[in-house]
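Q&A log
Question type: sequence-to-structure
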Amino acid sequence: MQPIRYVIPTDAKNLAKLAEETFRETFGHMNSVGDMSLHCASSYSEEIQTAEISDSTKLTLVCESDGKLIAFAQLRWSEAPDCVPAKHPGEIQRIYVSSLWHGKGIAQELMTRCIKEIENRGCDVIWLGVWEHNPRAIAFYRKIGFSEVGSHVFPLGTDPQRDIIMIRPVSTAIPCT
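Response status: OK
Response body:
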């Protein structure tokens, strides 16, 4: 398996590139070019990634091969939707693997690390939002113990889309840091 590490500030440019590439690979064929461009511009620039890397309420993990980023996950500690029954929730805000690396166990390894990081912060529930038209991701999350508890709107450019909210319990209940 490829090594997973914490992101560092000098990764911001390459992380921005990977984030936009993987988002477009995953959802571009099912959305308008305009909405994809609006979303990517407001979510994945180098400046935005730099700010997210330094944000104490977020943690970004990256996976690389031969010095090139191939996957990443971003965790967040903040308010959860009302449908998430947690005192101390931890969110998997983003988890993406470059399509060239699909089927090689990277997603599973990255998810295992995400769960460990969230458990280490004392969260009692892990939650995430997944687009209702992404059956591959939904099946992956169900396979590792996530279940649906509700939904929320995910604005993709000008298109308000429905994300399914899924949760998975964690073993500890110490407040998140």
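Response note: The chain has one domain: 4-169.
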